[in-house]
Structure formats: C-alpha cells, structure tokens
Amino acid sequence: MPRTATTRDRTATAPVLIVLVLGFSSMCAALMQSLVIPLQPELPRLLSTDPSSAAWVVTATLLAGGVAMPVAGRLADIRGRKPVLVTSALILLAGSLVCALSSSIVPVLIGRILQGLAMGYIPVAISFVRETVPASMQNSSVAGISATLGVGGALGLPLAAWIAQDYNWHVLFWVSAGLAAVMALLSVVVLPHRPPVDESRLDTVGAIGLAVGVVAVLGGISKGGDWGWGSPSTLGAIIGGIAVLLAWGFYETRHPHPLVDLRTTARRPILLTNIAALLIGFGMMAQSIVVPQLLQLPEATGYGMGQTILQAGLWMAPAGLMMLAFTPVSSLMLTRFGARVTLAVGAVVIAAGYLSAAAFAAEPWQLLVSTCIASAGVGIGYAAMPTLILQNSPATEAGAGVGVNALMRSMGTTIAGAVMALVLTSRMTQLGDGLSIPAEEMFHLCFLLGAGAAITGALVVLCIPRTPAISPVAAAHPAQADEPTPVR
User: Fold this and answer.
1) Is residue 3 part of a domain?
2) Are residues 215 and 189 in the same domain?
C-alpha cells in the first residue's frame, strides 16, 4: 500500500510528539525540587513538628532524586525505557497523593521521597532520545529535555509561592498529582516501546550500596549546618558514606553486570565530564540560594530589596524561561562546535552572570539580568553534558551513564547549598530586635564562589581530549555509521 501524505505527516510528527511528552514530563518531575521551598518557614507549624524535622521535607526529595537517577537509568537499559518512564510517573502520582492527603511529618516525608524518586524520569528521557528521534533532531531534543531540569526548578518557585499564598498548602500537591496523571497518561499513549538494550539482571546489591553511600554523604553535607560540621552525626554520615562508596566501587569492578560500569565511567571524556558536572552544578546553585535571600531581605538593611515570597519567585521565573529559550542556541552550538566546546562556553556564561551579580546587585532588575545571563549558560551547558556522555558510552550503558552524570550535578548543587549556607552565616549583621542577617559582602563572596566553580568547570572540560567518540547514531545502530564522531 503506497504511503499517503497523511501517513508521511504522522511519521514526521511522531518524533516531535515524543520529544514534547518527554520534555513536559521531565519538567513536571523537576518541579518537585522547588515545590515546597516557599513553604519552608511555615512547615513546622503546618506539620506540627520541629524545624529540624521539617527541613527533611526538602532534603529528602533531593536525596531520593540523587539515588533514583543512576538506578532508573540502569533499569531502563535492562528493562526498557518506556516501562521505567511510566513507572516513574506513577510513583510521582502516588507521592503527590500521599502528601495531598496528609498533614503530619511522617506521611509527608514518605510522599516527598516518592516524588524525589520520580526524578529518575529525566535521565531516562534523555537516553530515550537516542532510540526514538532521528539524528537530525537529537541535539535539539537533548538540549530541550536537559533544560527542563533547570526550568522546572525555576518555575516551581513562583508557582508554589502563588498557590501557598492564595490557597491551602495541600493544593500544591493536588496540582502535582494532576500533572503526574497527565504525565503518566501521555507516557503510556505517546511513547513507543523499544526492547531493552541489555539483557542482564539488575545489580541489586550495587543499587543498595549506592543508595546508602549517596544518602549518607549528601545527607551529612546538607545537614552539616544544623548538626554542626564537627559533630559525630555529620562526620559519621560523611565518612561512613565515603567508606560505603569505596566498598561499593570495589564490588562494582568485580561484578559481571554492575549497576555502573566504573571502567567506562573512568574513561577520560566521561570522567572529566562528570567532574565538570559537579563543578557547574555547584556554580548553578548559587543563584537559587543567594538571589531569593537578597530579594526578600528588608530594604532597611541597605542592600535588601524588600520583596515578598511571590515577588521574589516572579523575579526568578524569567531565568527558567531563559534556559528554555537557549535550547535552539545550544542545539546549533552542539552541531557546529561539538559538545566539548559548547559545555565550556556554557560554563563561562554562567560565570559571567555571577560576576555581573557581584558587581551590580542594587536593584531587583539587576539581579534579574544577572540570573538570566547565568541561566543562559545553564541552558547551553546542560544540553552538552548528556551529549558528551552519550557520545562516549555504549548503548547498553547509556541510561546509567546519563543517570550518573545527573547524580554528579545533584552532588554539586548539594555541596553548593552547604558551602553557601556556611559562607552566609560566617559574618552576620544585627538588624535589630535580635534579628541577625548575613553581611552584604558575604552575598558577593557567594557570587564569586559560583563564578569560580563555573570557570574551573570550563577548564576541566577543555582538558577532554579531541579523541574519536561514539556518535549517538552509531551507538544506537552500529551498522548505520562507519566512522565515529569526533569529540570537539
């Protein structure tokens, strides 16, 4: 039967629909990062608990997401990407419903952990592009889906602030439940099924070891300010977590089908990309921590801007849209200059945004400009990271490789949160009525630290050798490519 125009149109638009569903769903998962941040000061009262316990409502999601991304990536390699994507969406739906129906700390924590686990959707979605999207669309598709990690986090702040300000806080979770339901439905209906690229079994011991080590290290870092950096709890968590990860690495190198192939991860292009991801993740987090505080400090300080939570969220929202707007720019740069150069340029642009904030931060619009510059760099760089990983990983390890890279970014943002909090509280100014706030120069120092981390990340990227690498098409379909694509 000859192909009609309608048939050709459907064939042509199918990859676009796939990318739209993957991008929308990834953004929904990323929203969970910042969903409750505007509520954080009120959480002890809302959940009838102490501030230390309430802080875990934010931290638990970040820790769960850090663990979920490499595990979900590996599961997708050996069980198929669509089943993992649909399951992640259903986990998000379950977690949202648990939170929406709860008003005490324990069930809300359980729900938030489930929401964090759903972030495993994002690296699987990125690796799924290689199997379902034509080569001509792959750069733009990876760029768009990668950008949703930052876009979701940025747009979540004003959305959550508006809902929390004008409605009952449970509405936040009913909204996320609705988004998760749409996400699950679209994933079932639109996404095609592809057979697994690897037929080995899941390394369960490796998954448990990675989870214990990552949660211990990141938990110790994120709670070090509350527990005390020299306290037995903090040191025990960090040192114990590192010990578990070392034992995990020893075990993985001897396992026939490891959760993460450390020999592949140790290849210079992948290793340096992951180190750069940690540094750039550190640099990206500065604006998420420092800018909202500057915007909300009272004008009486002389450097605060007196904005409400909702106003601060709205000043931050364009930064998220800037990441999305730079998707085509990133795609063009990936095609023209290669992932190596694109990632380095993105890191330099991030640093430029922070340097402008350190020099000009007297008005909200100046911070808006600075965050938009930094976010443009994030939009450029975040697309290049998974591209470098995919170019240098075999198809059987694509999901796990992208997941580990996402974990390294998450580690960078967690370390940044701890370092920025330590810097801001190292020199305080008395505002009156017993209220202490960070001194102005500490905010500037945070911006400089963010810029320094991003510049260091760019230098690390430039150390990636110009060696032949596996192109996305060749890795997915070896017979379709005679020569590898060089890293540029």
Assistant:
1) no
2) no
Q: How many domains does the chain have?
A: 2
- Alpha-carbon separation of residue 199 from 38, 70, 297, 417, 479 (angstroms): 44, 17, 55, 39, 20
Q: What is the pLDDT along the chain (488 residues), one digit of tens a residue?
A: 444 443 333 344 488 899 999 999 998 998 887 788 777 778 888 898 887 788 788 888 888 888 888 899 888 888 889 999 999 999 999 999 999 999 899 999 999 999 999 989 988 998 898 888 888 888 888 888 877 776 776 677 777 778 777 778 899 899 999 999 999 999 999 999 888 877 778 889 989 998 999 889 888 888 887 788 889 999 999 999 999 999 999 999 888 888 888 888 888 888 999 999 888 888 777 777 788 888 888 887 788 888 887 788 788 878 878 887 887 888 888 888 888 999 999 999 999 999 999 888 788 899 999 989 998 898 888 778 888 888 888 877 777 788 888 888 888 887 887 788 788 888 877 776 667 788 888 888 999 999 999 999 999 999 987 644 444 444 444 333 333 344 45
Asked, for residue 119, whether it belongs to a domain, the answer is: yes
For residue 351, what is the DSSP state?
H
The domain in which residue 248 lies consists of 204-256
Residues near 185 by Cβ (< 8 Å), separated by ≥ 6? Answer: none
| Residues 199, 216 within the same domain | no
Neighbours of 189 (CB within 10 A): 9
Dihedral over Cα of 300, 302, 307, 308: its sign: negative
